[in-house]
Design goal:
The protein is mainly β. The protein has no helices and 19 strands.
């Protein structure tokens, strides 16, 4: 046979079916056939074998970086199409964080509002050959600031969010006097505190939190006749 397939001993049966497991696309050619008496015959014909494979791994799903249940309890997740895929499967870790609606390249996630913390969202493609590998995971941070927002929240801005740890605070012109900044984690522990004189900052302040780990935090601003809370996601 061609392609260095070697010599095969065929049982005395006709027709004969040869089973092989090639590692990739290939073409075979039948060169000679020798019977039990040593008579050699020239073979004719070729066979082309085309391989079908399980689909490749999708890209990491596109999701929101964070979700605050005050704003929404649902999110969409999507991936790009994978060549030769006929269906897709989704999963999250932990599985109790939510449920999926749909099985295509874009699905709706219904979050479990009793869960707060980090969730890893993944997808994989499927065809007649089976499932491909799971995609890289996308991290989504779930939290709830129910009951924490105050009358000054709409005027208080922080950016960028998510942030690498350098956060710009904009209080507008409503704050004066001593201003207390407290940063708490999802367990309610104060991980950073700072007091500044609002009369010297013209309503703006740079908050440096590079020392904090990735995650969700609450920034609370307190001053005379001023109280505001915002959620911050740190992602380095």
């Amino acid at each position: 046979m061609a392609d260095d397939m070697g010599t095969y001993e065929i049982p005395p049966s006709s027709p004969y079916t040869m089973t092989m497991i090639p590692e990739g696309p290939m073409t075979m050619g039948l060169l000679t056939v020798t019977d039990m008496n040593g008579c050699e015959n020239i073979g004719e014909g070729t066979a082309t074998i085309t391989m079908n494979y399980a689909p490749a791994s999708p890209i990491a799903p596109i999701t929101p970086d964070s979700v605050d249940y005050v704003e929404t309890t649902q999110s969409t997740a999507q991936i790009d199409a994978v060549e030769n895929a006929t269906a897709y499967e989704w999963t999250m870790e932990p599985a109790t964080a939510g449920t999926f609606e749909g099985e295509g390249m874009e699905v709706l996630i219904n979050w479990n509002t009793e869960y707060t913390g980090t969730v890893m969202v993944m997808a994989r493609a499927q065809n007649d050959c089976g499932f491909g590998e799971w995609s890289p995971a996308t991290e989504v941070v779930l939290s709830s600031t129910v009951g924490l927002y105050t009358n000054n929240d709409q005027n208080f801005k922080l950016y960028p969010n998510p942030s690498d740890g350098n956060i710009h605070l904009d209080f507008g012109n409503e704050v004066s006097g001593k201003l207390q900044i407290n940063v708490t984690n999802t367990l309610g522990k104060v991980v950073f505190a700072e007091e500044i004189d609002a009369n010297t900052i013209n309503g703006k302040h740079l908050l440096e939190l590079q020392q904090l780990d990735n995650g969700v935090y609450l920034i609370q601003i307190t001053a005379i006749n001023y109280n505001a809370v915002k959620q911050l996601v740190i992602r380095k």
